[in-house]
Amino acid sequence: MRKTVRQAVRATVQLAVAALMGFGSIVFITVLLITVTATVVVVGAWMLPETVLLVRRIAGAKRNQVAAWTGREIPEAHLPIEGPLRERLRTAVRDPGTFTDLRWMVAYYGYGCLGYLALPLWPVGLLVDGVWCGLLRREALVLPLISRLADLDAVWSTALLKPSPKVRLVERVEELTETRAGAVAAHGAELRRIERDLHDGTQARLVSLSMRIGLAKRAYERDPEGARKLLDDAQDQAEEALTELRHVVRAIHPPILTDRGLVGAVRALAASSGLDVDVRVDGLRDSAQDGPRPPAAIEAAAYFVVAEALTNAAKHSGSDRAEVRITRTLGGLRVIVRDDGRGGAEGVAHASGPGTTAGGSGLLGMRRRVAALDGTLLLASPIGGPTVIEVELPCVW
Fold first, then answer.
1. Secondary structure E strands in the chain
2. Cβ count near 134 (within 10 Å)
3. In whole angstroms, how large is the CA radius of gyration of the chain?
């Protein structure tokens, strides 16, 4: 009975707030009529964008209220109202989100009074459910109806306030356009890096190798010992060139991913990072041959995220410990890298969103790599630590 009463009280508070918002919506119709009239006569055209912004705030408050009750956020899609008056007027009138909010507000005049229905349910519920639950030990009958009224208010508000599929599609296209641009930039930067590594490293060593072999050929007849030394140096140069070439190849797609899978590759990274790294895996097998594996692109992105995060932790965190968690989810792969260092890495980045990620080119490279796969990257690094990088990569298992 106590649990039922507590839930009914919570639902009553929810309905009371909803009723107040409904009353406010009814009062707001006066402001709306004044705005429309002033706009028609042109004198008060400046009031329309401000009124639309006010409508957005009211609808946003309702979205937050419903999200607090249901635990699920209602997406909000609005065009920014800014610029000269003519542009602000055009945006306010043509924005599909404006009509979504107005549609909810008009409908809310009708169902915003659901909270008043809870008032007569309380005395009846306390009497009936008090006997029914307290004496007969049965489930409550009347008080749960208050929660159902709150649920009904949330369901109707969600249906009316969520953006139309067309608006969501436009947002999605803009989002994919941004991530595609980031992926193209990341691809170009990666090609330039590979070209620089080959030019400054492997190519230079191969040129030196060719010169030493040529000198050895010329000195072979008159100075066999000198020629032998040049050939030994040439062999060392060849081995160094091979080492650098393997390093370049590993940076493109590490062969260890193919041989040992993501878990084995991450464990190898942890062993060679110089930190005491605790690797925890949930839903994946250590062996590449056992169990399902994510797509190769997902494995590569997760691997490079862990590699970059551990490198940054070893260089900048000041901590000697780190933790890596790899979890298979229903819709993809989650990777979390945490260290207990000094923190202070700037910004909170969302890989699929706009903006520039602070914190250096390493984090920007991770952001672009994850964004190219439609994933998300979240960074939390308060002063004093800890630093946590969480990556979600969608994929089909």
1. 276-282, 321-329, 332-339, 376-380, 387-394
2. 11
3. 32
In terms of DSSP H, where are the helices of 71-113?
85-94, 96-111
Residue type at position 194: I
| Residues 73 and 62 sit within 8 Å (Cβ to Cβ) | no
The listed range with the strongest mean pLDDT (165-169, 343-347, 356-360, 380-384) is: 380-384
Stretch 92-120: mean pLDDT? 81
| 33-37, 73-77, 162-166, 218-222, range with the lowest pLDDT | 33-37
* Complete edge-to-edge strand list for the sheet that includes strand 332-339: 276-282, 321-329, 332-339, 387-394, 376-380
Where does residue 100 fall: left (phi above 0), alpha (psi -120 to 50 degrees), or beta otherwise?
A: alpha
Contacts for 226 with CB less than 8 Å, ≥ 6 apart: 219
Instruction: Give the whole-angstrom CA distance, residue 132 versus residue 124.
Output: 12
What number of other Cβ atoms are within 10 A of residue 305's Cβ?
Answer: 25
Phi, psi (rounded to 5 degrees) for 286: -70, -35
Question: Which amino acid makes up residue 376?
Answer: T
